[in-house]
Amino acid sequence: MNKKGHVLNAVLLSIGLGYLFVPVGDVETFKTIIMIGVPITLGALFPDVDTAFGKHRKTLHNLPVLLGFVAFPYVFGNLEYVWIGVLTHYVLDVAGSKRGIALFYPLSTQEYGLPTGVTVSSKRADFVTAVVTVGELALATMVVFELPQLVFELGRQLVGL
Ligand SMILES: [Zn+2]
């Protein structure tokens, strides 16, 4: 996907996550959207830096880079939420773009993609970006609302209550 697609994806995802975390739709919701939206959008732009430095869809499109951004806030105390932008960039490249990404680079140069992808120049690129974003938000909603209950139920069954 191109820069426009990644920004569209990051902004729509941030708005959705803002409403997911603070559903009231007031100033706090708006502040949350800005607080997470700026780092998510910057994170979503980061992987394509490898068009200039390294091998595109390999050097900065892999799991070690993502894990680095997940760990960064715990190690250095900043760059929270940037990993969400990097992750959503990968998801959009894998699910929305015809060419995949080398998830296991540098161990393997094999690129992984889904058949749902379209070419970057396709007229349907924006539509596919919106569909991928809706899918991500549906997954995020499940994680936020269903996962705690699922873990609770599993724990309850494990202790035999
Ligand atoms: Zn990319």
From TrEMBL:
Keyword Transmembrane among UniProt keywords: yes
Superkingdom to which the source organism belongs: Archaea
Listed GO MF terms: hydrolase activity
Residues annotated as transmembrane: 7-24, 30-47, 59-76
Pfam families reported in the protein's UniProt record: YdjM
Alphabetical UniProt keywords: Hydrolase, Membrane, Transmembrane, Transmembrane helix
Signal peptide (from-to): none
Protein name listed in UniProt: Membrane-bound metal-dependent hydrolase
Organism: Natrinema limicola JCM 13563
